[in-house]
């Protein structure tokens, strides 16, 4: 048996010109990743639309997310989490440019979906 371990707040990528997605664990319909953002946002008119559900936890920095049809932008600060149902279109409006915004993202299949 091989044990994996690490620290989500260390070993950050030195280049902050692009968001960095790091796969931490994957098994069946489950994927866990660390995302490091440094001032990035979704391109104008772009919306994420995933077949999987997503649960995100903001560990450091800050960000603003918009869910399609939502009344207000979700401003996220350390400790804030958000569940995004499958096919709930969403976009990142902004991430903190002064410090890394570190996310823990858990993607999983929809229970009972074909």
TrEMBL record:
Q: Which InterPro entries match?
A: Cupin_2, RmlC-like_jellyroll, RmlC_Cupin_sf
Question: Which residue intervals define the domain Cupin type-2 in the entry?
Answer: 49-106
Any Pfam family matching the protein: Cupin_2
The entry's protein name is Cupin domain-containing protein
């Amino acid at each position: 048996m091989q044990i994996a371990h690490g620290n989500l707040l260390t070993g950050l990528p030195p280049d902050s010109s692009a968001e960095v997605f790091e796969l931490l664990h994957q098994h069946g319909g489950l994927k866990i990743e660390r995302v490091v953002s440094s001032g990035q946002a979704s391109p104008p008119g772009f919306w994420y639309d995933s077949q999987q559900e997503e649960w995100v936890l903001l560990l450091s920095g800050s960000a603003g997310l918009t869910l399609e049809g939502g009344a207000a932008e979700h401003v996220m600060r350390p400790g804030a989490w958000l569940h995004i149902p499958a096919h709930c279109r969403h976009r990142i409006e902004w991430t903190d440019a002064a410090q890394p915004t570190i996310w823990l993202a858990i993607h999983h299949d929809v229970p009972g979906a074909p």
